[in-house]
Description:
By secondary structure, this protein is α/β, with parallel strands linked by helices.
Amino acid sequence: LLGGRLLEKGAIEVVGIEFSPDVCEKAERNLTEVICGDIEEINLPFDEGYFDCMILADILEHLKDPLSTLKKLRKHLSDSGCVVASIPNVRYHGIINMLVEGHWKYEDCGILDRTHLRFFTKNEIESLFKEAEFEITGITANIDPAYNSLSDPLSGEISFGRVSLSGLAPEELRDLFVFQYLLKAQKTGVEVQRLNDAVKTAVEEDNPDEARKALEEYLALHPADTDVLFRYAEVCWKLGLVDKAGESLEKILIFEPDREDALELRKIVEKTCRE
C-alpha cells in the first residue's frame, strides 16, 4: 500500500523486496518491481547509488544480521539519499515489567512479535546506524498515551508494577513509554562533502563570501568541528574579517592547543592586528 501511494504522489520507481512468494505476488500490483527473496542473502541487481530513499518499515528487527544488511543497502543509496526506518523499543515499560515478573512472552504482533530476531533500545539503534556509517538526521517516536497522563513527567521518578525508578532524565523517562522509534538517516560524511563542494565551487568562482556563508551555515549546526572552523578562519582572513578569523582560531585551540596550522595562522592574524 505504501509503495502504491508513493507512485501516486509522483515517485518514478518503487522497488520492493519480500521474502514470502504470496506477498510478492500481491505487492506486484502496487510496485514498479518486486524482488522475491531474502534481503540478507540476495545480491541486489542495481548500480551503486541507484536509490534516493530506502524505507525499512519494521524490517531490521526481523533480520539475523541487521548491521551487514544496512552496509549492503548503503552501497545502493545515493549520496544525497536517505534511509527511513521504524524500529520497536524493547525498553518500553511494559517489557521491563514483564521481565521483572519473570516472563518473556512472544505475541502475534507488537514489540515481542514472535518473528522478531533482534531487539533494540534507542541507544542501540543509534549505535547500529553509526557502525553502518549512517548519520541519524531525525528521530521521532510512537508513544504510549499513558505518558500524557503522568502527573509530573519531569520528576525523574516513576513506578509501574513492582518497579520503581528514580534519577531519570526527562528523555529517559519518556523513553520508557515509546513503543517504536521512527528515524531518518543519511550516509555519514555526506553533509561535509556537500560543504566541501559548495566551498570549492565558491572559491573557483572567486566568490569567497559565498564560501563564508556556506561555512557559517554548517558551523551553526556543528560549532565544534575544528577542521571546518579552520577553513572558516582562512576564508575570513582572505575577506579581511580579522576578528572573525581570530575568534575561530581561538575556538580551535581550545580543543587542539598544539594544532600547528591554527597556531601559524593565529601568528599571522595577530601580526596584522598589531600593524
